[in-house]
Amino acid sequence: MGVIFILLFVSLAIALLFLWAFLWSTKTGQFDDDISPGVRILFDEEKSKTNNN
After folding, report:
1. Domain coordinates of the chain in residue numbers?
2. Three-state SS across the chain?
């Protein structure tokens, strides 16, 4: 029975750690712009071609 309480405490601690990490990342703006980094790589080559001319 004691093992169940230990596992329950450990799982709640891990869940709270992940909740804290998610709230911290949203507060610091980690999820603000999730589209442009994927699109930006497509246009890097065009920028380097215009800079070399």
Report:
1. 2-52
2. CHHHHHHHHHHHHHHHHHHHHHHHHHHCCCCCCCCHHHHHHHHHHHHHHHHHC
